[in-house]
Design brief:
alpha+beta, Penicillin-binding protein 2a (Domain 2), Beta-lactamase, 2 domains, 5-stranded antiparallel beta sheet, 22 helices
């Protein structure tokens, strides 16, 4: 008997209950989701509407920094010595180019010189922030500028515009003093972060420049100004489609910095050096204002603005005359006979009689012979300064010792750095017995008597720079005040205090008058600087002191420069002040390895620079007119190569055992 399948049906009420439960669950979830969505929409559209409206506007508009015009650097008369000039340039925006390599290929056809810089251009473009224009070439000619604009439609991401570039109108005349500007690098960024400071966004702008040396570096913050910005409308890809002039902010130009320098004096100083190396500093002996501070040879700082080619920089760095070194404040040399008044003053302070006569027979003996350049016979202090007698000052030096000389040297301005507002100064060296104890020779810290004669005539371990020589000469000429040098006249229209109100020199002015009397005779008939120090300005005369410093030990051979390599020739120095009867300006000149004497290499250059300073002074010109003097020669007409005929001065002690001074110039 077969069985048939049975079908059982649930209770209809049970099926309806199960359906209703599922309906309530799903419906509840749907309702909750709807409420949540409604609440979120309400929050976005009502409560946070302003916040998101701002974010949307920020997505639509970008604010691009605009570098400010850099502040100018002016001379004391308002002449611009570092300013800005208009410059056409071409830029590339990486994110707007379809293919950077292809774009640079096309650009290279228009501007062939960009091909050589292709690798560095790619590196700079890739390192720049998104949508930030990167300069590819600056200082385009009008033809190049027009050509780029003509093909702009075929060069996506490429634009040409006009900006302001740093410009140095006097090229190398002020290069060492004012320095130059260059692009910020990774070291600059790291230095700011190491100080715990926030890196200004402006430093990441590819067209921005910062100061690298001199005034440009020391006053970089003041010269920078405040960045502005351009508000531009962008599309979804970040490309500029319009500019919002109302939302833009103009940049604030940097502050102007006014120096105490005089452009005419500075230019003349560099001119008279010609091919020679050295430095020249001119100071106002009344208030310490520096009118000239030149280092030769120099370099063109304009080349650093866009980036100096490595081949040119390497040539500068390798050149033995070191154009990149500021010899006025960083290069140090033995002062030679220009230092003899210091020894004389130290002796006067110790009670020496300036009228005492010391006999010069051509040599000084202290265990061995130290030579003088001539046989001067009987000399008092004034005559010894006039004739630059080694025997006289060696005798005084041995009698008073090195410590007395060192004390006076430091008081007169040697062995120290001055607050000029610029760094990179070399303090030089003023040795004494304590210094020798700290710096023994082969373990021997004694100061030997044989070192003192050389010290007394400005040789040995003693080193100075041209600025210190000018300060020393100014204090001698002033006679009463320890004048301090001043380079910065004002910043942003705010006058920097003059250094005129300074301490008195701790010496009887009558003692300094004795030294000035001797220096007056140096440029008189028979003096070591007579022939090449005559100003030709009637009664307005110049007093000075010649100096020659050995660069090596010549043994028993001749120290004349003829036929010797440049690096083996003597250094030539000259210090001076004028007018003699009422000192107003002091000048120091160092001719590195000039191979002649201070009277033949330094004096004629000092004469030419001093003439410009005097003739630019209204009071001096009035005096000349009252005296009935009419200048018959243009003070700027002298050629650097014909500044004076050779005149032997022999300011150096030549002896086999004479210590050789340091070369004096730090390696570049």
């Amino acid at each position: 008997m077969s069985s048939e399948p049975s079908i059982f049906f649930s209770d209809p009420n049970e099926r309806q209950g199960s359906f209703l439960r599922r309906t309530f669950v799903v419906g509840g979830l749907t309702a909750l989701g709807g409420l949540a969505l409604t609440g979120r929409l309400a929050q976005l559209q009502v409560i946070q509407s302003q916040q998101y409206a701002t974010l949307a506007s920020n997505n639509q508009f970008n604010f691009r920094l605009v570098p400010p015009p850099r502040g100018r650097i002016l001379d004391r008369n308002g002449v611009v010595i570092a300013g800005n000039r208009p410059s056409f340039r071409v830029l590339v925006v990486r994110d707007e180019t379809k293919d950077l390599d292809q774009t640079l290929d096309l650009l290279g056809q228009l501007l062939p010189d960009t091909v050589d810089r292709r690798r560095s251009i790619i590196r700079e473009v890739n390192a720049a922030p998104r949508f930030s224009p990167v300069p590819v070439k600056s200082d385009l000619t009008w033809e190049e500028f027009a050509k780029v604009n003509m093909y702009a439609n075929e060069l996506p991401g490429v634009m040409a515009d006009m900006n302001e570039a740093r410009f140095y109108p006097f090229s190398g005349s002020f290069a060492h003093v004012i320095g130059y500007v260059a692009k910020p690098n990774d070291r600059d960024i790291s230095a700011i972060r190491d100080r715990g400071e926030k890196v200004p966004e402006l430093l990441f702008n590819p067209g921005f420049r910062i100061g690298r040396q001199g005034v440009e570096k020391s006053f970089d913050t003041d010269l920078r100004g405040e960045a502005g910005g351009t508000r531009v409308e962008v599309d979804a890809r970040g490309r500029v489609v319009a500019e919002d002039a109302g939302g833009s902010r103009p940049a604030v130009p940097g502050k102007d910095v006014v120096l105490t320098l005089d452009a005419d004096i500075q230019n003349r100083a560099l001119e008279v050096f010609g091919e020679e190396a050295g430095s020249c500093v001119v100071m106002d002996v009344r208030n310490g204002d520096i009118l000239c501070m030149v280092s030769a040879p120099s370099f063109d700082p304009n080349l650093f603005v866009a980036g100096v080619p490595s081949s040119i920089y390497r040539a500068w760095a390798d050149y033995e005359r070191r154009p990149l070194t500021d010899k006025a404040i960083n290069g140090v040399f033995a002062p030679g006979s220009t230092f003899k008044p210091v020894t004389g003053l130290a002796a006067l302070i110790k009670g020496a009689n300036p009228d005492r006569r010391i006999f010069c027979n051509g040599g000084f003996y202290l265990g061995r012979r130290f030579a003088c350049h001539a046989t001067h016979g009987s000399q008092d202090m004034r005559d010894a300064i006039k004739n630059s007698c080694n025997v006289y000052f060696m005798t005084l030096a041995v009698e008073i010792g090195p410590d007395a000389i060192a004390e006076v040297a430091r008081t007169m301005g040697f062995g120290q750095k001055f607050d000029l507002g610029v760094g990179n100064q070399n303090a030089g060296l003023v040795p004494d017995r304590e210094w020798r104890r700290r710096n023994p020779v082969r373990g021997d810290g004694r100061w030997y008597p044989g070192e003192t004669p050389s010290y007394g005539i400005g040789q040995g371990a003693l080193t100075v720079n041209a600025l210190q020589l000018a300060v020393y000469t100014s204090r001698l000429a002033n006679g009463r005040k320890a004048v301090m040098p001043r380079l910065i006249k004002s910043v942003g229209g705010v006058e920097r205090p003059s250094s005129g109100e300074v301490e008195d020199l701790p010496y009887d002015p009558s003692l300094l008058a004795i030294l000035r009397d001797g220096m007056n005779r140096v440029t008189d008939v028979g003096g070591t600087g007579f022939r090449n120090s005559q100003l030709g300005l009637g009664a307005v005369r110049m007093a000075g002191k010649t100096g020659t410093a050995q660069a090596r030990n010549y043994g028993s051979g001749s120290r004349k420069g003829a036929g010797r390599p440049w690096a083996q020739k003597d250094h030539n120095l000259f210090i001076a002040y004028a007018p003699i009867d009422n000192p107003r300006y002091a000048v120091s000149v160092i001719v590195q390895h000039g191979g002649m004497g201070g009277g033949t290499a330094g004096a004629p250059r000092a004469r030419e620079v001093m003439k410009v300073a005097l003739l630019k002074d209204p009071e001096i010109r009035q005096r000349l007119e009252q005296d009935g003097f009419a200048e018959t020669e243009d003070p700027g007409s002298h050629e650097a190569g014909a500044l004076g005929a050779a005149e032997p001065t022999g300011d150096v002690a030549t002896d086999v055992g004479l210590p050789v001074p340091p070369e004096g110039e730090p390696p570049q």
